[in-house]
């Protein structure tokens, strides 16, 4: 039963499990205590910090352990912002950061700060030039992920770090998705990561703050972890996290090369095997184990259930799978289709057979969902009946508005227009994306008392 | 090699270890995901929440898991204060709260709030009447620990909760030290606890917020744990924490009765076996497994090392064992001796033989430290030489100023005075405490250009 959602969480690496077992015996005491159990715990903590710092590429006294990657991001951003309060309250983030960064940015804005979101291209990457133009004399901190968690696109961190260094702005890098594959290149100032993404246990994040970076920890004081991460240290998990990081790094290059072949196969074959599919993310500058695609006329939640029944655990950035009814902010920022979205992230050790099995199961699962929705019968060619038609899709949820549009486009001649009324938030993203995929002209959106009217001109 | 510092951290309970193992296999995935690994994780999380809520005595939807007891306190206090912002910014805490509470109170004060510390009696207990008098019309929140972590004194939580309820003020209870022994009685509003104190794994705290309590989570938004605890849930540890809480509760009454006998033995015998010792904390209203005493003319760190060499791991609230050079705020608030302080907290399963062994080793260890310091020769009776003497103890650290005082008291007649010059912060606590123990009159303190002058009149 292949699990292909390692970007969410990875099962515990065998080395992590061994280290955890040993540290539960040897490292349960308070490392601040003077007696032998405490001294033993202190030795384990020091060794774990050395190992993690080596993997990150920083000094041991620059690195602290936090209870999660989210805590590392929140504490890192809050401390860096406060450390530069005199410079100003301007924060720069990319539009495709992890929600932990964006939520911290929202909190900053709510507290009176200002936030600039740097847009990304259709592949999900920021441009260093555009990043540079967003920095001002009051920019306190800039944030950029090392690689995107939804589409796998690797960001130009080293170039952006240069741009930030030139402007004297510290760069915080969220390295959650990439740290297991290698250190983050470039002159970053603050780095956050999460152990359970590389096969370490949950309950451990890393926060590295380079010497010389102005940093003022926020929240109540606590003497542990250089005052940067309060609470009793989760030492057994920290030991396991450091041990597994070292272990996955030792095999990272070979495993990356192997998984890259499998991911390339998925990228190529999905486009051939499934009609009306869009593979998203950058073709080359990407994580080795992650690929994302979206399927037209498919409801993401139904597709996930279908794949789950077939034995494959994958994730989705479609709105229909979350409770918020909004599509993934990453796909929206990229301007790509979000309906029927599937993210495949292969764990280390994934075999070619497992990937081949997935490629067999996927077309069937997509076809089943489409059949339930009345696709493709609904899309069969019909003769044009009018120069322009209006489709009332109010109350219908993704992917129905796009299905209604696809059905209606055949009822107008080339040059004719279809107007779709929709109150589904996702239509704003998916109708233009559908036009781009199908070669039609998207004419724009007009607010209506209920929802919006989206106008499309048939071009082919 | 007996470990007698379970109030700091307890080794993992066997049930916790079993549950952790199982949950590492079954509960590593994201409980928010739709596939089978996610659903399995969700079931485990729901079951752990039910079990923990039952042990706490609240509804499952009132309880969230945090990464530590400290996080539970910080998040609970911040949320409760923000929820009552309109009422005012006044916070009431006892003077003997855990540092996590006091640090959060300091952060509140730094942000413009006001804080009242309710004093305690010589046994470390607050008085509900005094607590009531500290509540004002602008009091947003009140905090009280269920039992003190340094001296074991159980606080009158139910009575204080009534007083708070009458004033319409929510009471936050830090139940870290007591939750393994039983639920917190009374009408508390918010409760925080820490799993590694009851033999659960590190990395898990509990935060319970009663329905109807105004609560506004602070910090960046996060959809997990009802928005009250950000970051990926440490599910294996949460499962282990809940399982071990249930297990320790099942045996709590019997084990409490057994350990209470052993602690009573320590309380009685220490006073007989060790000259010049003060047992602190309440004799009856106390945790079953914890006893604290202070030894005159002893440096706490040396005593801890001596006991460690003899095979006993204990803790100390003496200044000489911390990096801060200030004595425990708990002992200071109680006004009791802090020098040579030893806290013994017995783990479940401690045998009578282990306790007897400790009672044999302790007098030897104390005698060794005193011999090194030149005690008791220094204290041998000398004929009075003057009506008043001044002792220069500047630059000397605890316990030296008190030893100098004890040596000098024989050099004045009854009715004569000894003035001790000291720049050691601890003298302010320990000189009056020594007077009380020895039956001399403490006349007060006068600031000097360097340190202070402490005046003592010989009375016996």
TrEMBL record, chains A, B:
Catalytic activity: (sulfur carrier)-H + L-cysteine = (sulfur carrier)-SH + L-alanine
Domain (UPF0033): residue spans on this chain: 391-415
Cofactor(s) this protein cannot do without: pyridoxal 5'-phosphate
SUPFAM superfamilies reported for this sequence: PLP-dependent transferases, SirA-like
Coiled-coil intervals: none
Keywords: Iron, Iron-sulfur, Metal-binding, Pyridoxal phosphate, Transferase
Pfam assignment, any one: TusA
PANTHER family membership: CYSTEINE DESULFURASE (PTHR11601:SF34), CYSTEINE DESULFURYLASE FAMILY MEMBER (PTHR11601)
Sequence similarity: Belongs to the class-V pyridoxal-phosphate-dependent aminotransferase family. NifS/IscS subfamily.
Protein name listed in UniProt: Cysteine desulfurase/sulfurtransferase TusA family protein
Source organism of the structure: Streptomyces polychromogenes
């Amino acid at each position: 039963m292949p699990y292909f959602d390692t970007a969410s969480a990875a099962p515990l690496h065998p080395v992590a499990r061994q280290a955890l077992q040993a540290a539960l015996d040897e490292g349960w005491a308070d490392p601040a205590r003077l007696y032998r159990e405490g001294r033993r715990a202190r030795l384990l903590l020091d060794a774990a910090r050395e190992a993690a710092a080596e993997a990150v590429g920083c000094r041991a006294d620059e690195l602290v352990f936090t209870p999660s990657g989210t805590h590392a991001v929140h504490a890192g951003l809050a401390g860096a912002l406060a450390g530069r309060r005199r410079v100003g309250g301007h924060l720069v983030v990319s539009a495709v950061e992890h929600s932990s960064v964006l939520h911290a940015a929202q909190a900053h804005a709510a507290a009176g700060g200002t936030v600039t979101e740097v847009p990304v291209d259709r592949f999900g990457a920021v441009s260093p030039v555009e990043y540079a133009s967003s920095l001002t004399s009051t920019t306190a901190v800039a944030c950029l992920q090392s690689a995107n968690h939804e589409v796998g696109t690797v960001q130009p961190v080293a170039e952006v770090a240069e741009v930030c260094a030139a402007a004297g702005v510290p760069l915080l890098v969220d390295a959650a998705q990439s740290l297991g594959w290698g250190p983050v290149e470039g002159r970053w100032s603050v780095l956050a990561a999460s152990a359970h993404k590389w096969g370490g246990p949950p309950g451990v994040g890393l926060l590295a703050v380079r010497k010389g970076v102005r940093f003022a920890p926020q929240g109540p004081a606590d003497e542990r972890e250089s005052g940067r991460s309060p609470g009793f240290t989760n030492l057994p998990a920290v030991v396991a996290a450091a041990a597994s990081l070292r272990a996955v790094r030792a095999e990272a290059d070979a495993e990356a090369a192997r998984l890259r072949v499998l991911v390339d196969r998925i990228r190529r074959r999905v486009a051939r095997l499934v009609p009306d599919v869009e593979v998203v993310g950058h073709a080359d500058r990407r994580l080795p184990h992650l690929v994302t695609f979206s399927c037209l006329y498919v409801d993401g939640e139904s597709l996930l259930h279908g794949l789950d029944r077939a034995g494959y655990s994958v994730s989705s950035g479609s709105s229909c799978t979350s409770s918020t009814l909004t599509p993934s902010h990453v796909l929206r920022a990229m301007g790509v289709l979000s309906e029927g979205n599937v993210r495949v992230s292969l764990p280390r050790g994934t075999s070619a057979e497992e990937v081949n099995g997935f490629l067999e199961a996927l077309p069937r699962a997509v076809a089943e969902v489409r059949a339930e929705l009345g696709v493709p019968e609904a899309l069969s060619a019909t003769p044009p009946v009018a120069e322009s038609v209006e489709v009332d899709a109010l109350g219908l949820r993704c992917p129905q508005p796009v299905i209604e549009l696809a059905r209606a486009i055949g009822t107008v001649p080339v040059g004719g227009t279809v107007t779709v009324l929709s109150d589904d938030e996702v239509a704003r993203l998916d109708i233009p994306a559908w036009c781009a995929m199908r070669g039609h002209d998207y004419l724009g959106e007009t607010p209506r008392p209920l929802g919006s009217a989206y106008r499309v001109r048939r071009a082919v």
